[in-house]
Amino acid sequence: MSGAPKYDVLVAGGGVAGLFLAYLTARAGFTVAIVEMKSEEKVGEKVCGDAVGEHHFREVGLEPPRLGLDAVGVFEGVRVYSPSKRYFVTARGKGYALDRKAFGRRLLKIAADAGAELLASHAVVKPIVEGEWVKGLRVRGPEGLKDLYSRVVVDATGAAAAVRTRLPSQWWVAYRAPLEDFNAAYRVIAEVEEEQDPRYALIYLDAETAPGGYWWWFPKGRDVVNGGLGVKAG
Ligand SMILES: Cc1cc2nc3c(=O)[nH]c(=O)nc-3n(C[C@H](O)[C@H](O)[C@H](O)COP(=O)(O)OP(=O)(O)OC[C@H]3O[C@@H](n4cnc5c(N)ncnc54)[C@H](O)[C@@H]3O)c2cc1C
Predict the structure, then answer these.
(1) Smallest Cα–Cα separation from 145: which of 116, 164, 123?
(2) Per-residue pLDDT tens digits of the chain, which is 234 residues long
(3) What atom of ligand 1 comes closest to residue 159's alpha carbon?
(4) How far does residue 195's CA lie from ligand 1's centre (Å)?
(5) Closest CA to 97 of 12, 207, 219, 229
């Protein structure tokens, strides 16, 4: 038997999608809580290339990153190299090298300022399903298990799909994506001796180094680089 819904919207996952959705729904007047397994001080952290095009911010109506606040560099475009590295195309357009944590914290702040509640250090255990309805989430927090009821549950746990994949298996939406649909990635942020051209984010379609994916070299200013690669997982 379900409890009375405490929230209009329960957002599972406090990454970029969950935080922004929490902001939008709280701003629209709904009662919202974000269930995030990370501790409060780690919300906003993400292993990522930290590069993003400005047009995305215009599209969703969010103020673009600002140098010194949540951006450490401004790109003029992305340069994509052929497998031989002899050729490249440049996709021009403004973008940012993010201070990823500061960007995540900005999203958390606007969500909290709009009234969303953050339940940090709370992991989704499973959705609460009654008949054909999702009524809330069972979560594990510092005080143990508890059931949270809401009118709407959103799975914003990214690749983990922590809610969706625990729905009844006969619901099509519960499918588990096959391994070959995933990339395995490695990322490092390092100081480098050679001076970088901070205007371009570089992508290498190099089938030897990164089979089924690519490797990237995204300068963050003149002497720091975010580099990494993603390869086909399956
Ligand atoms: C190595 C790498 C490099 C990338 N580089 C770029 C780039 O340069 N530019 C770009 O635009 N994109 C990049 N991306 C993609 C980008 O990071 C993702 O698209 C984006 O972070 C997805 O956001 P999200 O909110 O959907 O998921 P996530 O950021 O993954 O957030 C999901 C949240 O859910 C939480 N969570 C998971 N399971 C549970 C659970 N059971 N209970 C509670 N909380 C849970 C996690 O802790 C996390 O905070 C990169 C990704 C990777 C991995």
Answers:
(1) 123
(2) 568 889 999 999 999 999 999 999 999 999 999 999 999 999 999 999 999 999 999 999 999 999 999 999 999 999 999 999 999 999 999 999 999 999 999 999 999 999 999 999 999 999 999 999 999 999 999 999 999 999 999 999 999 999 999 999 999 999 999 998 899 999 999 999 999 999 999 999 988 899 889 999 999 989 999 999 999 887
(3) 30
(4) 30
(5) 219
Neighbours of 233 (CB within 10 A): 14
47 C-beta closer than 6 A to ligand 1: yes
116-142 in b/e form (b: 16+ CB < 10 A) is bebbbbbbbeebbeeeeebbbbebeee
Token digits for 33?
A: 């809580």
ipTM > 0.95? yes
Q: Is 187 in the pocket of ligand 1 (CB under 6 A)?
A: yes
Closest CA to 93 of 66, 58, 54: 54
Q: What is the reported pLDDT for 139? A: 98
Give the chain's domains with CATH numbers: 1-50+99-176 (3.50.50.60)
- Cα 80 from Cα 100, distance rounded (Å): 23
In contact, 137 and 163? CB cutoff 8 Å? yes
Q: Name which of 133, 121, 131 is nearest 40 in CA terms.
A: 121
From atom 48 of ligand 1, which residue's Cα is the shortest distance away? 15
Site to probe by mutation for ligand 1, drawn from 39, 45, 46 as the one with most ligand atoms within 8 Å of Cβ, is: 46
